[in-house]
Amino acid sequence: MTAAVSTIQIFVHGSVAYEVAQRAAGYDAKTWLSAQGAYGDSIIASGAHPTLIRIMVEAEGPHRADQNERLFDSGLRQVLDGLAAALPGG
From which residue to which does the signal peptide run (predicted)? Predict the structure, then answer.
Protein backbone atom coordinates (compact mmCIF):
# COMPACT_ATOMS: atom_id res chain seq x y z
CA MET A 1 0.00 0.00 0.00
CA THR A 2 2.94 2.33 0.65
CA ALA A 3 3.98 2.01 -2.99
CA ALA A 4 0.48 2.99 -4.11
CA VAL A 5 0.48 6.11 -1.94
CA SER A 6 3.97 7.01 -3.18
CA THR A 7 2.84 6.60 -6.78
CA ILE A 8 -0.03 9.02 -6.25
CA GLN A 9 2.21 11.51 -4.42
CA ILE A 10 4.82 11.39 -7.19
CA PHE A 11 2.18 11.96 -9.87
CA VAL A 12 0.66 14.92 -8.00
CA HIS A 13 4.07 16.42 -7.19
CA GLY A 14 5.23 16.12 -10.80
CA SER A 15 2.04 17.67 -12.15
CA VAL A 16 2.21 20.60 -9.75
CA ALA A 17 5.93 21.16 -10.39
CA TYR A 18 5.30 21.19 -14.15
CA GLU A 19 2.53 23.77 -13.86
CA VAL A 20 4.52 25.96 -11.45
CA ALA A 21 7.49 25.88 -13.85
CA GLN A 22 5.22 26.82 -16.78
CA ARG A 23 3.79 29.77 -14.90
CA ALA A 24 7.20 30.94 -13.64
CA ALA A 25 8.51 30.90 -17.20
CA GLY A 26 5.41 32.69 -18.51
CA TYR A 27 4.84 29.71 -20.77
CA ASP A 28 1.26 28.69 -21.45
CA ALA A 29 -0.54 26.56 -24.04
CA LYS A 30 -0.91 29.51 -26.42
CA THR A 31 2.84 30.25 -26.27
CA TRP A 32 3.68 26.58 -26.81
CA LEU A 33 1.39 26.33 -29.82
CA SER A 34 2.91 29.45 -31.34
CA ALA A 35 6.42 28.05 -30.86
CA GLN A 36 5.46 24.72 -32.44
CA GLY A 37 3.43 26.13 -35.33
CA ALA A 38 6.02 25.92 -38.11
CA TYR A 39 7.13 22.44 -37.07
CA GLY A 40 3.54 21.21 -36.89
CA ASP A 41 2.83 22.71 -40.31
CA SER A 42 5.85 20.88 -41.76
CA ILE A 43 4.62 17.56 -40.35
CA ILE A 44 1.17 18.11 -41.83
CA ALA A 45 2.61 19.17 -45.21
CA SER A 46 4.84 16.09 -45.37
CA GLY A 47 1.93 13.68 -45.14
CA ALA A 48 4.39 11.16 -43.69
CA HIS A 49 2.54 10.44 -40.46
CA PRO A 50 -1.21 10.23 -41.18
CA THR A 51 -2.30 9.20 -37.69
CA LEU A 52 -0.30 11.98 -36.03
CA ILE A 53 -1.61 14.46 -38.61
CA ARG A 54 -5.21 13.44 -37.90
CA ILE A 55 -4.64 13.87 -34.16
CA MET A 56 -3.02 17.28 -34.69
CA VAL A 57 -5.76 18.54 -37.00
CA GLU A 58 -8.62 17.26 -34.84
CA ALA A 59 -7.08 18.30 -31.52
CA GLU A 60 -9.11 20.67 -29.42
CA GLY A 61 -7.36 20.03 -26.12
CA PRO A 62 -4.23 22.15 -26.57
CA HIS A 63 -6.38 25.12 -27.49
CA ARG A 64 -8.49 25.15 -24.33
CA ALA A 65 -7.66 27.19 -21.25
CA ASP A 66 -8.23 24.25 -18.89
CA GLN A 67 -5.58 22.05 -20.51
CA ASN A 68 -3.54 21.45 -17.34
CA GLU A 69 -6.63 20.57 -15.31
CA ARG A 70 -7.84 18.10 -17.92
CA LEU A 71 -4.40 16.50 -18.22
CA PHE A 72 -4.18 16.18 -14.43
CA ASP A 73 -7.66 14.65 -14.16
CA SER A 74 -6.99 12.20 -16.99
CA GLY A 75 -3.56 11.24 -15.67
CA LEU A 76 -4.76 10.76 -12.11
CA ARG A 77 -7.64 8.62 -13.34
CA GLN A 78 -5.15 6.43 -15.24
CA VAL A 79 -2.87 6.13 -12.20
CA LEU A 80 -5.79 5.18 -9.95
CA ASP A 81 -7.17 2.70 -12.49
CA GLY A 82 -3.73 1.10 -12.77
CA LEU A 83 -3.38 0.84 -9.01
CA ALA A 84 -6.89 -0.61 -8.71
CA ALA A 85 -6.07 -3.23 -11.36
CA ALA A 86 -2.98 -4.26 -9.37
CA LEU A 87 -5.03 -4.96 -6.22
CA PRO A 88 -6.06 -8.54 -5.49
CA GLY A 89 -9.25 -9.22 -7.42
CA GLY A 90 -8.61 -6.03 -9.47
Answer: none
